[in-house]
Amino acid sequence: MLRRTVLKIALGGAGLAALPTLTESASATPAPHHPGPGFLGVGDPSITLELDDRLHSRVTVLGSTVTRFDASESLLLKDGTAVEDFRYRGRKTRKIRHPRHGAGLQVTVDGDSAQGVRKTVELTSYERLPGMTVMQVTYTNKSHRSVDVAGWRSGAHELLQKPGGFYTFSGSTHEDRRDWVQPVTDDFFQANSLGMDASDYGGGTPMASVWRLGAGLSVGHLEPRARILRMPVRKTTDGASLAIEGDTPRTLRPGQHLTTDTTFLTAHRRDHFVPLQRYRDYMSDVGLRAPKVAGTAYEPIWCAWGYERNFTVEQVLGTLPKVREVGLKWAGLDDGWQTNEGDWDINLAKFPRGEADMRAFTREIRDAGLRPRLWWAPLAADPDSNLFAERPDMLLLDAEGNKQQVTWWDAWTLCPAYRPTVDYFVSQAKRFIGSWGYEGLKIDGQHLNAVAPCYNPAHKHARPEESVEGVATFWKAIHEAVHRVNRNAVVELCPCGTAFAFHNLPGVDQYPASDPTSSYQVRHKGKTMKALMGHGSSYAGDHVELSDGRNDFASSYGVGAVLSTKFTYPSDPEGTRPGRGNVLTPEKEVLWKKWVALYKEHMLPTGEYRGDLYDIGFDKPEAHVVSKDSTLHYAFYADTWDGTVELRGLGRGRYRLTDPFTGASLGTVDASHNTVHLTFEKFQLVIAERR
């Protein structure tokens, strides 16, 4: 009789190269006429996959079984069914050394379905990427009949339930700007498509996670270009499920095969931070990583958006002395300086001499001891712009020839993969920095994260998806052009309310919280972006006026974000709605100066964000840590808290604890006695310094 478990694969990380090769398992019985099952030991068993006789797989995380045997890789058919069961045929095992990822182990398993489809699963783990299993699946039609395929599914597992519930992270964009990290409710379902959720909302980071206390799973893809896939997460009766899926409609004739995108399954103990790090490290190996930024990317920001589009030049210049007095360094000119989105001509009502006045304006900012930054929203053309009238060939069109709307500006999206579009906006960026004297760009708009496939015949795309992939190369072209003019310039990308597309990262120096709807969004976006961008990156908390209470600098400070504000001074513009003003009152000025001084004293963005130490879902109070020069900077958040907290990450010796915001002493701790009693409302900062 065939035993259920055929192959056990412990795919960990550390020590792969030094481990023994495959040995037969004494407890398993071989299938008739098939190679015998075996046990494969490959070191750190942070993730273990057990495959049964149907090539369903079960996952063990750090020694604990967390799923059943699930139909983890399936071929989806056009009739709505799926080919899920494959009779085990055999396996091959080999140690490898990848030129970029280093030492690893690769296991290839195959099996045949009753429909005559052969599944070949290639599983790879790397020593430097513990807990991560890289996967690619090939489906070959071994029958004498054609198979009508709709797509594929990989990494499909149900994380089994334990008391405490689940949290999930989604790297996909939603038009309603929901939280990226949220609890899994009883009726929870998200398709998590990496395509367009609306005409101007889409894309994201290709990873989804679900976790419970002590164990979690993440799936995603590892393709070097943006792909339109789904990563569905749903609450089930016995747990929470996730998978990654791709649509590949085609007919597989006898002998033909389909190979999936390269995907991954990662096991983890806490939240999504570590699997995002693993993803970042893998992609960095293939050249996709955040650029190293100049020190100017950490300087605190003032933006003139408090005056909105109807600002006057006099208002902006009149605020600069107060901006400098508060301690800020950047002064950003926002929306309203231009005639329209598309032409980007100077509004002569505000700058009557055109470029001469604009250059004089940036000189006045520098004379005030500040750095000028300019707001810009490329890849769009207003209906009344000359660009729209004269260059309709730049438009991104869908399969029916329809234009794609940018709703906020009532503009039309342009194709980022069309060379004339790229050249047009590159020339503008060079003019802003080289001729007008700006030292940074704030590039803004929800349409800038991703676009739909383009069918404009003028572009002669080999595939409509070239536009999807072209967003990343567009930003790379802008970034390179700007830095050729000024190597210390800062390119900030604010794709309003979207989940930031990882593939755009190499063309961006700074990401803000991008119109956060709460302080929690400032913090969990910060944790996410610190994982994706890595040490030394620049993440800004966006205007503090968008946070809870319109003054929550603590949420930016605690995650190591650059501080930002859009205050007006000495008054708000006429017509400001009650309760929506941004004027810097004397009371606010004291608070603003205190936070900016604290920020400049410690410069936490230049430290190492330790997102691995706390779980943003389950640890209470919510906790964040930045390590810098052997000092640990803790930040705790709750509406109210009166209790003990654990200070994780301490090294040898004793630490003196201080509240940097109040200056109060909080006692001493060491690694074996690392708790402290705290009582606070909203936030508590703790600095732990070696004695």
Strand content: 25-35%
Distance between the termini: 66 Å
The biggest beta sheet reads: 10 strands, antiparallel
How many distinct beta strands? 41
Q: If you average the pLDDT, what whole number results?
A: 93
Structural class comes to: alpha+beta
- Poorly predicted runs are 13-44
Radius of gyration: 27 Å
Q: What spatial form do the alpha-carbon principal axes imply? A: globular
Q: What's the number of helices? A: 9
What proportion of the residues is helical, as a percent range? Answer: 10-25%
Structural description of this entry:
This protein starts with a strand and ends with a strand. Mean pLDDT is 93; it is low at 13-44. Strands 9, 10, 11, 12, 14, 15, 19, 20, 23 and 24 form a 10-stranded antiparallel β-sheet that branches. A 6-stranded mixed β-sheet has the order 2-3-1-4-5-6, with no helix packed on it. It contains 9 helices and 41 strands. The protein has 691 residues and is of the alpha+beta class. A hairpin with a 4-residue loop joins strand 10 (102-112) and strand 11. Helix 1 runs parallel beside helix 7 (519-533) and helix 5 runs parallel beside helix 6. The longest helix has 20 residues, at 466-485.
Set down the secondary structure blueprint.
Layout: E1 5-10, E2 23-24, E3 38-40, E4 47-52, E5 57-61, E6 64-65, E7 74-77, E8 82-83, E9 87-98, E10 102-112, E11 117-126, E12 132-141, E13 147-160, E14 167-172, E15 181-183, E16 189-190, E17 196-198, E18 201-202, E19 204-212, E20 215-221, E21 233-235, E22 239-252, E23 257-259, E24 263-268, H1 273-285, E25 301-303, H2 313-326, E26 330-333, H3 355-367, E27 371-376, E28 380-381, H4 386-390, E29 405-406, E30 411-413, H5 419-435, E31 440-444, H6 466-485, E32 490-494, E33 510-512, H7 519-533, E34 538-540, H8 553-558, E35 564-565, H9 586-602, E36 608-609, E37 622-628, E38 631-646, E39 654-658, E40 665-670, E41 675-690
